[in-house]
């Protein structure tokens, strides 16, 4: 099939996909999550960064490719991404002109130009429209679904040789830390069609956040079981923990998208959105497991009893955040970086508010195990025919070196002295899987205990300084301590998950039927689960959902997933 015909074939579904580019682009939460991931500072050498007398061939006198070679004369490279809000910049910098765009040009001879910048405040399908019309930039970031569509449409090029020739030792080492799984997910018919945004999966596990100022006011202890957690939730609803004399507080916070429930489901040994082995050793989707039915039945009881916000079905994530700031929520399952956003902002509006992280709890005598999906959610691709696809790899080499290598300057390239998060600026980033937990957590904890910082890398040194500042009374560093501190931090919680974490059994790219049917299945699931929770449908409706899920493409997806597993 010709490329133009394939593009036309996929245009309809492309137009409905949401824009998803850099995780640094939208809210503080995404930025803070990205900020905590990096690579080993010892991986590259200063000699690799000496960019003098380089030509556009990126080779030295002996013809060896230099991973940091500078284009001379400079080249212009076009890309797209989500815009960063103006308050993310200082000293007159902008999305188009900042420390990283200048470093690309100074060190590599790459003039980066954005064809457009997506609006971070709303949903956008601009990239999907660009893909459908084949009006794409030279290099850019895409979702798994978009990568599949671009490969099928023959719109992007093979990066196998680019990776082998241009990836620095640090980048190759990072790419192999997961055993090559991320690279395999971007490989089609033996060709590496994209560079994955490598990352760690443990940091995506849910933890349990609780308003401990409320809990202590009511004379309650941290929960060790689901029953104890639900008793805390009941107390938050009935005992006026905010002391305003009104019946306006509730325990568990969820939104109409049913976000904020993964940790709750995990407590019932249900694993939404990931693939787990059944009794026969075959992979099955966690959304249709019997344990999910049990968890939904409990949520139905909680809703009927008033433990959940009666209006959750019409509240999006933004409205839930408002509820937190308005002093109405006491329990929230979610990410390790919630200390930065939304809790830090809420604390500024509510003096005395205190949130602390705890491990998820079990509904029975079996331990609660956190489940996580495939850690790669973005891929970097090069337009078919673009003359310099290697710029993706070279920009990643530079990111690792300037942020964590021998030439690293933390305040210049990562977080400025004023606290501006410069790490959000690079258009391409990759992260070491074990960087946050256990590496940074254990390194900083050890330094706090010994007061010896000599072994810390630049990021760890920065964390150490903020954490010790908080320990000495600096409340401005509360968010950093609650995430990465030696005790009562989300990193401490995640470190406890390290040996029991359940990772999805499917680590491949979206299967053909996922591309075609996943949106329909997700809509069916959200509608059914919402009705069950609200009591608008009996719990038996779950069984009908499973039957429909299978008929509408779930069985075919399951077959494709297990075919992939059989080849591994």
From TrEMBL:
SUPFAM superfamilies: Periplasmic binding protein-like II. Residues 1-23 form the signal peptide. Residues 30-72 are annotated as: Disordered. It comes from the Bacteria. Keywords: Signal. Residues 30-61 have a biased composition (Low complexity). PANTHER family: ARABINOSE-BINDING PROTEIN-RELATED, POLYGALACTURONAN_RHAMNOGALACTURONAN-BINDING PROTEIN YTCQ. This is Extracellular solute-binding protein. It comes from Paenibacillus lignilyticus.
